[in-house]
Amino acid sequence: MLKKLCLCISILWIGSLQAQTIEDRISASKEYYASNQQEKIYIHTDRQQYTAGEIVWYKTYNTIGISNMLSILSGVNYVELIDPKNRIVADQRVQLGLGLGAGSLTLADTLIEGTYRLRAYTNWMRNFSPDFFRKTLQITNGRTDNTVTRTSLRSDGKDSFVGVQLNTLSGDPLPKTTVRYEVLDGDKTLQKGSERTDEQGLVLIKVTDKNKDKDIQLSYTNLDERPVVKVIHTASIKPQSNIQLLPEGGRILAGIINNIGIKAIRSDGLGVQAKVEILDTKQEIVGVGETNLLGMGTMAFLPLEDENYTFRAHIDGEEPQQIPTPVISSSGMSFMVNNQHPTKLFAQISISEDLLSEEPAYLVLHHFGNTYYASRQKMNRKNLVFSADKEMLPSGVLTVSVLDASFKPLFERPIFIMQPDDCMTIAVSVPNSKIGLRENVTINALIGAQTDTTRLASLSASVVNLSRLKDTADLQTNIYSSLLLEADLKGYIESPGYYFSPENQAEKLADLDKLLLTQGWRKFDWSVEPQSLDTTKTFEAEEGLSISGFTKKLGRKAPAPLSEVQLISTDNYTDFIDTLSSEEGFFRFSDLLFPDSAKFLISAKDQKGKNNIDITLNVPETPEIQTTAGAQNDLNTLYLEELLASKQFFRELESKGLMPNTIDIAEVVVSRKVEKVPEHSRNLNGPGNADQIITWEELQNYATIDIALNGRLLGVYFQGGIPYNTRSRSPMQIVLDGMYVEPDMLSTIPVMDIASIEVLRNINYTSIYGSFGGNGLIVITTKIGSEGRMNYVPKGILSFTAKGISSAKEFYRPRYEVESDRTFTNDLRTTIHWEPFLTPDENGKASFEFYTSDEPGIYRIIMEGVGLNGKIGRKVLDMHVGK
User: Fold this and answer.
1) Neighbouring residues of 848: CB distance < 8 A, sequence distance ≥ 6
2) What is the largest CA-CA distance in the chain?
3) What are the pLDDT digits (tens) for 242-260?
4) Are 421 and 414 a contacting pair, CB within 8 Å?
5) Which residues contact 635 (CB under 8 A, 6 or more apart)?
6) N- or C-end of the chain: fewer Cβ atoms within 10 A?
7) Cα of 543 vs its chain's centroid, Å
8) Contact present, 265 and 246 (Cβ < 8 Å)
């Protein structure tokens, strides 16, 4: 249980002026913290491994601050799926109630195999750097891909090559297949080319300075004549290692024992075991340190003032490498923290003789400036030792800051505190008798302890069949690692769940301290007066969605101030809200809740009641996508057994009508950038990057655009003047000079104003548009850009489709009872059960039930949740199911 968050200040000097000064600074910092609350997100998914066509079931938990109380700050979560090319291929908005929400994300048939990231954030979180929730998902594809790869680094003695072996799922090679490749650097293409596979299905791509350690996109056609795209992370094929030495406190002082952090990391971002030796001028080893499996370790070092040292690293399979020697100073200060004692935290400052003084040094324990402990000592001794009781500290990442008399940081060091009382106890019981196939099972849970002030909580539970998974859930992000650790650390953390596994907890806490020594960073700057910081926020906390834009004078850039603006639902034209635009023409409709892909009209009139107004909508910018480590190659090969099993179960789902039996796949139309497409095209893929392009010359002699295009577009047919996708038989999205407009507006656009039309149907082009690209798009660019819209858009009115709240599907629960119609002929489920909202009664009791499948084996139950008292909990339990 989180102890009282009191401020314990131990001032060892009676001078009231100095004491009051540090108290004032702490008080001001606390006020700043209160107005800059840290909102955190954790998403519990039913598993971490999927294949294209499946559904990701998830529950989202939003908490506030280090106490992890459920947040009421935000009412909407933004959830995004990022593919191996760092593109957002799916995004949803989830409505929250008391910080809780749930959703389902269907993985498109055309997703490329690879390591994906689930990212989630609120609008408020965008004010505080991109420290969003992130979770790795491994996704294979056996729907449209149906090929496996084996990548390797090869050499002919002169040159090196990235070798990719292409085979079908049954193991047959893809011989004499043309493979196009692009070398990617972020969103840039550095190199293009093509090669052909040999008789054994092997393609070789020469390694050059341009593509070394870069991602390579491969495009080819499989034996079913379907397009396939793969992304090869070349840095993961034969990664090189790099060793960093990180002195605790940032400095090494001669004549005393110093603690040095070791970080051994490969070029693919993963850690590696390493041994570091310190050698003196006689080449005698005077110090040794080793890293753990995740590449982090520490070593003690007592340098002599007149000695020169060499640091040498050893990694299995690699040549020994010499590491640059850190700077060793004879004058200065060093810092060490000991967090291994169960009840006490110790910190020591070592000061060289020439820097001893009567000036004070302050040690402060805080979280984003919210202080939990402070102490003061004079810097008149060579060794200053501080100690603090851990009992008063909350669980999570705290920062130890040592400040000088001017409150500027001398040293900073993150530490991790774990209080057992801050964890919610979860006891799960399963039937003691033998559990058979297709048997109804009831799971009982007891949440919390009798000493808790409340046992009310919200939990989620998944049950998965481990025989169909290569389960690494214990190593992946979980509710502990997310809310207590990852939310406070910048950058990629390998296997975050490892630090919170129940086995060898003392060892895990020691490894966690090594992680913080080598990767920790501070987010609160004590050297800046809190009163001088700008407390205004760019991004507001949202209770709901918003629609905003500008009113401008017709055909001009000047604003139309104080215009009357109405937002009208096309489902019910009597349902509208209104507002006035500002002096700058800005308007906003806030706290809205509407379903995804809802259609609206916005009308506007100026102060004279005239509609001579242009309306432009704000298109919110997506937060920058951070690159990350840990991406894997050859997932279809690694998870081939699971992929084949899923294909078998898909046939069962198709027969029950729970999954479409047609695969959404676009034909391949190879195109290149056409110079006749104007540069001001708003095609998000870049002007001319489309499946088909129609120029203005081809539209002459036609009365309307729909007549001009009818029968000329591949995979598109027209009905009532509206373009439909032949695959989905749904209307395509029209994008007019970057604005999403209704398909029925197509016939109103004068042909003479069109500069180009770009048709996007291939997933390579449509995925960048998210849900708007689901049925393909027609991107229209006018000759005079966005101002050309005044020729054909009614004045003072705008029609558009908005991204709204995503609705979650119902998890299908088969029931094997007499005369039940909810059954499978062949039950081969991977996710046996998903329970997003599990609420215990006042005595902490909760339960749920499900039917086992047709497959025996170990079924894993994972239950996670947050209590109303801020406690978080997780329980993993395996049960055996037999025939």
Assistant:
1) 442, 443, 461, 833, 835, 838
2) 93
3) 999 999 988 899 999 999 9
4) no
5) 113, 114, 115, 138, 139, 140
6) C
7) 22
8) no
